[in-house]
Design brief:
Elements (H helix, E strand, L loop, with lengths): L1 H11 L6 H11 L2 H17 L7 H27 L6 H17 L5 H25 L4 H20 L9 H7 L12 H19 L1 H11 L1 H6 L4 H26 L9 H13 L11 H20 L4 H19 L10
Length: 341
């Protein structure tokens, strides 16, 4: 009898978590691992390039590049938390850049009007895609890939292949590494991205809309039973992704030399990488744009290391892929809430 009781007790008593489980749990709760990696890469870069800390212009340029990457990944972050994927980003970026440059130069549109047209147009496309994905159960991977190709082709068609013009001066003043904000030697785009991060954090963590958003991503069926309008959530999130992607294209055009064919393509991979490296996973309650900001900083410093070591492009891609795989090994194995019932 005592033997039977001891066997029963050993079967029902939960075992304490091992060290790996505890490490994963801490990493899932807070972006501790990302901060450690960020500091390690920063120290590595300073050791490799000792003059970097004494070069404010170089530091500002790195921060602007990270801010632009984070801005481009802002809408993607929300879509990934919802459980989807938006491959339309390169098209949004090209449309935004086209309107920022050609819309102001050829059509004479004021920059605010061009920005408004970008937000409304790209937002409308995103809203349709989100509604279609939810209403007809279409895979976002398929429909957004097609929509991105259409938008990229449309931008090139409308321009007639005439690109390479500089962005208007007001836009360059917002995104240029040499611009200032109220006398501070910090470009406005950095403050804009930080402000967006604060607003998104407040909305997602302190409002009922944020709770409905996370609930829709984690378990859409339960969210529907709780009378959450999941269709409206999908439509709104994809609309935001489109509007933010278009604005990102305007800022990218202001930072660089205007717009060009294929200028949005690099941001599709690096934007998604920033989301995943930051620790945001598909349909997760722990995803946030704050994590994406850290991921964008990590990738920006990492790309600087690649340039400092004069690695080839394919070697850099191998390094990026290895980091993403490592992050997925930690964050991608968490059991989904919808599978626990």
């Amino acid at each position: 009898m005592s033997d039977h009781a001891s066997i029963t007790t050993s079967l029902t008593t939960p075992q304490p978590p091992d060290r790996w489980t505890r490490v994963r749990s801490a990493a899932l709760q807070r972006p501790i691992l990302q901060l450690v990696v960020l500091v390690a890469i920063a120290v590595w870069l300073v050791v490799l390039v000792p003059s970097l800390p004494t070069n404010p212009r170089a530091i500002t340029s790195l921060l602007v590049v990270a801010a632009l990457l984070a801005f481009a990944a802002m809408g993607q972050t929300l879509v990934v938390i919802l459980g989807g994927l938006d491959l339309t980003l390169p098209g949004y970026i090209m449309i935004g850049a086209l309107l920022a440059v050609d819309g102001t130069a050829k059509l004479g549109l004021p920059l605010p009007i061009a920005a408004l047209i970008t937000v409304v147009g790209c937002g409308a496309v995103g809203a349709f895609l989100g509604f279609a994905c939810h209403r007809w159960a279409i895979s976002p991977l398929v429909i957004t890939l097609g929509a991105g190709s259409v938008l990229s082709g449309l931008a090139f068609f409308l321009s007639g292949g005439d690109y390479g013009k500089p962005a208007p001066d007001p836009l360059r003043a917002l995104a240029s590494a040499g611009s200032t904000t109220f006398g501070l030697p910090v470009p406005p785009v950095i403050f804009i991205v930080l402000g967006c991060a604060v607003v998104i954090w407040i909305v997602l963590t302190r409002t009922s809309a944020g709770r409905r958003f996370y609930a829709t991503g984690v378990n859409p069926r339960a969210a529907g039973l709780a009378r959450i309008n999941t269709s409206a959530t999908w439509t709104t999130v994809f609309a935001l992704s489109g509007a933010l992607g278009g604005l990102a294209g305007m800022f990218i055009a202001g930072f660089g030399a205007g717009w060009s064919q294929g200028m949005g393509d690099p941001y599709l991979f690096t934007g998604l990488a920033a989301v995943l490296v930051g620790g945001t996973t598909f349909a997760s309650q722990r995803g946030s744009f704050t994590r994406t900001l850290i991921g964008a900083l990590i990738l920006t410093l990492l790309s600087t290391l690649v340039l400092a070591y004069r690695l080839k492009e394919e070697q850099g891609l191998i390094l990026y892929g290895a980091i993403i795989i490592a992050m997925v090994a930690i964050y991608g194995r968490e059991r989904h809430v919808r599978d626990r019932f």
